[in-house]
Please model this.
Amino acid sequence: MSGSKEKISKRLSYVLRHRPDSIGLRLDQQGYVEVELLLSALARHGDELTIEQLNELVLTNDKKRFSFDPTGSRIRANQGHSINIDLNYDQKSPPPILYHGTASRFVPSIRQRGLLKGQRHHVHLTESRDTAMSVGSRYGEPVILIVRADQMVANGSRFFLSENQVWLTECVPPNHIEFP
Model:
């Protein structure tokens, strides 16, 4: 596939998280697709990508968006899906504090409703303030929200940790968020 790694990553994210049907693919229940089928489908739609380029992208992607299954014959996006799949993550105990980066224009709504998953399967949280700042910067003037994960767990919320170290939960009620 010609273009930057970022362009390739965005194309794969679109296909593996949201629209596998856009290139004639179906993901299995855990979100995997055979690597050879993916490469062939991309090529049929004008996006040639070699197995070497795909391997390099998976190994060097700074956000670790994709992973191979243990055999290396199937690939999936690690989280962020808008389609119905079961990532089969085990419930984990989060650290007491997690962070969520957003744009300042969303804060009034979050104060009222909390953090909602929207079209995704989960709300995404991080242990890193820097990562939260980077995520928030993509949408406008960034704001870092502090999430009291310890309080959420005490109130029965469940957390999962994706393969690329993103904390996932169903929602974050506003009373568990510290606003700037």
User: Anything to note?
Assistant: Residues 92 and 160 are 5 Å apart (CA to CA). The chain is about 30% helix and 20% strand. The chain has two domains: 5-77, 91-178.
